[in-house]
Amino acid sequence: MGEQKVLVTGGAGYVGSHACKALKQAGFIPVTFDNLVTGWQDAVKFGPFERGDLLNKADVDRAFKEHAPVAVMHFAALSQVGESMQEPGLYWQNNVMGSLNLIQAAVEHDCMDFVFSSTCATYGDQDGVVLDEDSAQYPINAYGASKRAVENILTDFQAAYGLNHVIFRYFNIAGADPEAEVGEFHQPETHLIPLILDAVDGKRDALTIFGTDYDTPDGTCIRDYVHVCDLVDAHVLGMNWLKDGKGSRIFNLGTGHGFSVREVVDQTRHVTNRPVPINNGDRRPGDCTKLVSGSLRAVSELGWSADKSNMKQMITDAWRWHQSGTYTK
Ligand code: UDP
Description:
Elements: E1 5-9, H1 14-25, E2 29-34, E3 49-51, H2 57-67, E4 71-74, H3 81-86, H4 88-108, E5 113-119, H5 142-161, E6 164-170, E7 172-174, H6 192-200, E8 207-210, E9 222-223, E10 225-227, H7 228-243, E11 249-253, E12 259-260, H8 261-272, E13 278-281, E14 290-291, H9 297-302, H10 311-324
Parallel strand pairs: 1-2, 1-4, 2-3, 4-5, 5-6, 6-11, 7-10, 8-13, 9-14
Antiparallel strand pairs: 9-12
């Protein structure tokens, strides 16, 4: 039997491209399916590329027919909290309808192992509640709501057709491939660490901190950051979990340690040894005060280890990529 193929939607994006590298290293052929709206063809380095749109079911069917994947890793999505508040329809259409086409096609083509990128934004702003996989979900932005809807679709397709799935609820993702073959590159950039690095090297005047009056020790939001390489390692473990017949499961991917926006700024100053110009700005609509994983289920059940997910390493790897890597359309 030759190498097995895995269909990676969003394989030209930040997390998806790192997943393709991890899959290749694990002996699979990652087939990237991407519409290149937010992804980059330059990031497709580890296997074949199928340009297509999840909203066009014929594109999706073509990819399954052509490649006969043994599993799906579904990363493709719009993922900006702020944008989701301004244009919720975009999120419901792309994230929910696109995912529904993909899930339907997976069942029709008998590809019954499905790994899905969900988010801690499905939990919402639950002050004082330990966020584990059994916590209630009260998303406060359309991004989180759209991801929760896809989780619900997967549950129903499991019941009706036996679609086995692993749902990963990501906390915040940071860092880059230490070899800088792929990295984080959004246009426009909206994520904290790349924006801080832009401010460090003068690509923008300053980082604006979104809200300094939150009920946290320094007044800024707290997030739990995971190294993208650790994150994608969990996906390979999750896929193997399904291949071993262990059944559908939800896993948080976080470290259990929170960093405030100011703490991330301070650490970036240390790692880069340069000043970080900042402005104190207003809160961003849709932001939760604090999102920190309260679960280590991925560690105990999947055997996951988040050993690269310390802030210094994440910023070091992001900085290396920032200085060397770029994609062009
Ligand atoms: N943030 C900020 N300034 C920025 C971008 C982000 O203060 O220019 C804050 C944001 O409010 C949040 C944290 O940094 O508390 C992480 O935001 P990001 O957009 O990176 O990820 P999210 O948590 O929205 O998925």
